[in-house]
Amino acid sequence: MLVAIITDTHYGARKGSSLFHDYFEKFYNEIFFPTLEKMGITHVIHMGDAFDSRKGIEFKSLDWAKRVVFEPLKERNITMDLMVGNHDAYYKNTNTINAVELLLKEYDNVVTYSSAEEVKIGNLNILYIPWICEANEKETHQLIKSSTSKIAMGHLELQGFRAHRGCIMEHGDSSMLYSKFTKVFSGHYHTRSDDGRIYYLGNPYEMFWNDCGDRRGFTIFDTETLEHSHIDNPYTMFKIIYYEDTDHQLFDTREYEGKIVKVIVRKKSDSVQFEKFIDKLYSSNVADLKIVENFVLNDDAVETEGLESEDTLSILDRYIEESDISLDKSKVKNFMRATYQEACELIF
Q1: More confidently predicted of 298 and 327
Q2: Position 343 confidence tier, pLDDT thresholds 50, 70, 90
Q3: How far apart are CA 161 and CA 192, in angstroms?
Q4: Which end of the chain is more exposed for a tag (fewer CB within 10 A), N or C?
Q5: pTM for the full model?
Q6: In this prediction, what percent of the chain has a pLDDT beyond 70?
């Protein structure tokens, strides 16, 4: 039996931004549902963080989620198992009050899971593991130890995997806790990463600048062979342009329409020509445009190549790691990541 696995969809993300939800919708209309229909898939497993904000969701975003995702699932007679992720739970120490159980009661084709449970899909028993928190940690760890399932799926926070490009998570549970399983699939981290047995599948689409350039999409899993494959989302939101005296007349700007664009200036000999290049970008209806210029006095003054390729979180992590502080650096990094993500909710 083939099933689809999706995770970290974050409906209502970016304060319910219409720009982002139009981009998300393109994925569902042109990639996700057509693939399910083509492959005859009638069951979807969602591994958590269906909704973005633990505190609530705008009516517009909820209407979008039902119109674009949950109504099409119901119309196609596709069932969904949906686990609670940390963004779905109202409290940080318990999953008791959560968005998926409260907002999706009308869909009898959607089954929600707020605590760990063994579920049979086809002929395969799978251990579902929603977000592990203070209230359910002991019970969940006991079920992990006693489970006879070969496969585990959940919303896990494990050490040693990529949280995003350039950042390896240093805290969380040890992966040894899941050594008994043949395969473990997880959401929570938005970028794909694996050790050959534990697979972080990544989220379906770009949401922040640190997603730029990473493969996104969803996963097809065969419950008979235990094999899985990724279906990539070809559509992107963030674009980087390296300007090196680029001829504006020859530069095709059509692919940047509706995108969030960053222009990194490597060489600018003529300011007038550069302004014409920027004007052409604006005229192509980019959603947002940022310009990064590196001013150096000589070739030996600053090494900019690495700086240009690093995202904000990577720079923050590197700065903290290299700093001389007595505090727990992993905790400082976590605090800065949380602050950065909150800031990203307010701006492009």
Answers
A1: 327
A2: low
A3: 9
A4: N
A5: 0.86
A6: 90
Q: With the C-alpha atoms ordered 11, 13, 15, 21, is the resulting torsion angle positive or negative? A: negative
What is d(CA 53, CA 69) in angstroms, rounded to the nearest whole number?
18
Amino acid 116 reads: A
Q: Name the DSSP class of 296.
A: -
Residue among 235, 275, 273 at smallest CA distance from 257? 235
Q: What one-letter code names the amino acid at 289? A: L
Measure the CA–CA gap between 310 and 221, rounded to whole angstroms: 33
Can you tell me which residue has the tokens 């992590």? 317
Name the helix (H) or strand (E) containing 113. strand 110-113
Q: Which of 115, 117, 203, 110 is nearest to 163 (CA)?
A: 203
Give, rounded to a whole angstrom, the gap between the first and last alpha carbons of the chain.
Answer: 41
DSSP output for 2-69: EEEEE----BTHHHH-HHHHHHHHHHIIIIIHHHHHHHT--EEEE-S--BS-SS---HHHHHHHIIII
